[in-house]
Predict the structure.
Amino acid sequence: MSQLTLIQGHAAPLRIANFDTDQVMPKQFLRGIDKSGLKDGLFYDLRFDDEGQLKPDFFLNQAAYALTDVLMTGPNYGCGSSREHAVWGMQQYGFKAVIASSFAEIFYSNAMGNRLLLVVLPEEQVQALMQEADEQCGPIPIKIDIEKGVVISPKHRYAFSMSPRHQQMFLEGLDVIGLTLKYQDQIDRFAQAHWQANPWIKNIARRVVDRLANSSQA
C-alpha cells in the first residue's frame, strides 16, 4: 500500500445522524464472494427510487457534487451490523475520508484497518464545515493532513487526533497485517519463550489431528 500523509479532496454533507451500515450498503449487495460491484450498492436507497432510477434530489446524483470524495455527516455514523462491505463500497465509490463527531466502534475499526480515514471532530466543528458547504451550494475544497492532524477548508482549520497505531498505518502504507509483521522478531521471541516454558502446547492442534488420523487407521 502507498504511504499517505495528505488527503486533498472535496467535502459535502450528509445530514443524517445514526446512519447505519444497512443504509450505507444494503443487505442485497452482500451476496458476492468478493469485493466487486459494491460501488453500485452504496447509499442505494438514497440514490435510487423503487424502479432503480436515480433520485435527482439526492446530492451525490447532482452534477455540482460530482467531485465529492470526502463525506461530512452526523454522529454515530456506521452503526448497526459490522459488515465490512460498507467500507469497501465507500472506497470503490471514491470516498477518501469521512468527517463526523462520532463513529460506531466496529465501523471505525473496519474503516481505519482498510485505510478509509475517519476524522473525529466536535459536533459544532462538523456543523460549521457543513454550513460552509451549504453556503457554497456544493462541496468545499478540503485538506486533511494526517501527519499534523489538521483539517483545512477555505474558512476553517481544525485539529484532530487519531491513535498512533492508525496514524502509523496511513503514514507508512501499512494494513493491519503489515503493521503486525513489523513486530515479527518480538512475536517470534515471545512464541519461543512461551513454547519453552509450556512445551506441551506447541503444535497441539497438529498433534491432535495426527493422533485422530492414526487412531482411525488402526
Remarks:
- The radius of gyration is 22 Å.
- Strands lie at 6-14, 70-73, 97-100, 117-120, 140-145, 150-152, 157-159.
- The first strand starts at residue 6 and ends at 14.
- The chain has a mean pLDDT of 93.
